[in-house]
Amino acid sequence: MKVLVAVSGGVDSAVSVHLLKEAGYEVMGVVMKMSPAHDATVEDARRAALQLDIPLTVADCTGRFDREVVSYFMNEYRSGRTPSPCVVCNPLVKFRVLAEEADRLGCEKVATGHYAGLRQQDGITLLTRGEDPARDQSYMLARLTQPVLSRLLLPLSTLSKDRVREIAAGLGLSCAAKPDSQEICFIPDGDYAAYIEGRAGSCPPGDFISPEGRPCGQHRGILHYTVGQRKKLGIALGRPVFIREIDPVSNRIYLADAGQEYAGSCTLSGLSETFPGSLSGAALPEGMAVEAKIRSRAPLAAATLTLTPDGQARLAFETPQRAPAPGQLAVFYRDGVVLGGGFIDRAEFL
């Protein structure tokens, strides 16, 4: 059986290729050039493909990525929200291109180096958490749908990152010690504000509003800030404060005292189901008990999910959570299975 693997030149995709070959699959690779900043990724993927002895296709996705991800990313920051570029890119660009290339090349299956699991149940492919909680990436895949999940292979689901590096080192792969990427993939230096200003212009300065409700300084433009931010505010009130709310209409940023950054609930929109039909119980008045992640690196939090008549949802936490940020994805789990998710619109602080 043929399988097409998304190759990035990193250790995760390389070891995925190796494991699939060991399992008897006929493996092909594709590297996606998402932006001009991905030239190094393409070269690393070519080097890995040579070492792994697989054919490699280069898919130029720059136009699609710019439309679907970069534009969204810039608009969210300019609207006072914190974007989730990876969870938007995965269903709209990365996995769509992966499936298209697989169809073109006659590959029945597709694979990536994500740390998450898959399980079959009554004809449905369930997305589950990876066995290594420290590396679990199911959050990033939470908006994938059944047509993708049903043909997806995730060879690293049971492995730790340390074990993956050991395998790569044992194979003599040049990527074995390559560090994980921490920055936004299309902004290598991580300065997202400069990137947005260079492409879309700056946002006007406006007022910081103190916890007492008074103007207490000028911000540099809302695209420079996120809800929950405590550092680099450029103001001195004599005590720690954090950003509680960004209002793009009034161009004001509202501050609160440290210790008041915890929210008991938040409202969500743009809901999607990863496990079809799993959220129907959330429409009941008492809602549905779930575990939720409100950002990729957040711990699971017990919560009640309730669908509202307007097609949105309310997520109420058993224990208040720190600064849910509008624009970030909240993902719902039960027994380690991803049910779906929704984008945070507003946090209800205590």
3D architecture notes:
The chain has 350 residues and is α/β, with parallel strands linked by helices. Helix content is 25%, strand content 32%. The strands form 4 sheets. A 6-stranded antiparallel β-barrel has the order 12-15-14-13-16-17. A 5-stranded parallel β-sheet has the order 3-2-1-4-7, sandwiched between helices. Strands 9-8-11-10 form a 4-stranded mixed β-sheet, with no helix packed on it. Helix 1 (11-22) links the parallel strand 1 and strand 2. The longest helix has 21 residues, at 85-105. The chain is globular, with a radius of gyration of 21 Å. The termini are far apart. The mean pLDDT is 95.
Index terms:
350 residues; alpha/beta; Rossmann fold; SH3 type barrels; Elongation Factor Tu (Ef-tu), domain 3; 3 domains; 6-stranded antiparallel β-barrel; 5-stranded parallel beta sheet; 17 strands; globular
Report a brief summary of the structure.
The chain has 350 residues and is α/β, with parallel strands linked by helices.
Distance from first to last alpha carbon: 54 Å
Instruction: Pick out the low-confidence regions.
Output: none
Radius of gyration: 21 Å
What is the residue-averaged pLDDT?
A: 95
Q: Can you identify the CATH class of the largest domain?
A: Alpha Beta
CATH architecture of the largest domain: 3-Layer(aba) Sandwich
- Which range best describes the helical content: under 10%, 10-25%, 25-40%, 40-55%, 55-70% or over 70%? 10-25%
What characterizes the major β-sheet?
A: 6 strands, antiparallel, barrel
What is the CATH fold-level name of the largest domain? Rossmann fold
Q: Output the structural class.
A: alpha/beta
Q: Which of globular, elongated, flat, extended, rod-shaped describes the shape?
A: globular
Strand order of the largest sheet: 12-15-14-13-16-17
The CATH H-level homologous superfamily of the largest domain:
HUPs
